[in-house]
Amino acid sequence: MQDVGIQKVVVGALLAMSCGATVADSVVDMCLDLDRPDDVCPCAAAALRDEVGEDAYTTYEAVGVVYRENQAAGQGRSDAWTAALDSVGVSLRDTNPVGAAHRKAMKGCGG
Q1: Strands (E), the chain
Q2: Which domain, by its residues, includes 96?
Q3: Rounded to the nearest 10 degrees, what angle do helices 54-72 and 40-52 cross at?
Q4: Cα–Cα distance between 48 and 44 in angstroms, integer?
Q5: What is the rounded CA–CA span in Å between residue 26 and residue 68?
Q6: Is the separation of the CB atoms in 27 and 61 below 8 Å?
Q7: Do residues 71 and 80 make contact, with C-beta atoms less than 8 angstroms apart?
Q8: CA 97 – CA 100 distance, rounded (Å)
Q9: Per residue in 34-51, is it b (16+ CB within 10 Å) or e — as a string?
Q10: Is the entire prediction scored with pTM above 0.85?
Q11: How far apart are CA 110 and CA 15, in angstroms?
């Protein structure tokens, strides 16, 4: 059942990109959760997408969707992220470089 959710995330992200929509996804939400200014997070998400490429960005965003769902269900940050990685089928080795690039993008966008 989780695969269907991930497929919806990927399809939604692709539709948003093809329509020229602004970035509004879990990557933005994760930034906002870190108390960054509202204008920094969409900038950082767009910069991250440019830096890491579509495949890595889409995977990171899919992990973020599950992570946020896990947090909403009451899991702490670490447990929520670990469970999200397992759910999406990736490891910290896959997401750590993207997370580092995301933090760098936040700083570059003024946050």
Answers
A1: none
A2: 2-108
A3: 130
A4: 6
A5: 7
A6: yes
A7: yes
A8: 5
A9: eebeeebbbbbbbbbbeb
A10: no
A11: 28
Specify the amino acid at residue 96: N
Query: What domain count does the chain have?
Result: 1
**pLDDT (tens digit, 9 = 90+) per residue, 19-28?**
334 444 899 9
Whose structure tokens read 């933005």?
28
Reported as a single tens digit per residue, the pLDDT across 60-89 is 999 999 999 999 999 999 999 999 999 999
If you search the block for the tokens 């999406």, which residue do you land on?
A: 88
Residue whose pair of structure tokens reads 């990557």 in the numeric block: 27
What is the tally of helices (H) and strands (E) in the chain?
Answer: 6, 0
Q: Locate tokens 């906002």: which residue?
A: 32
Place of tokens 């089928």: 89
CA 42 distance to own-chain centroid: 11
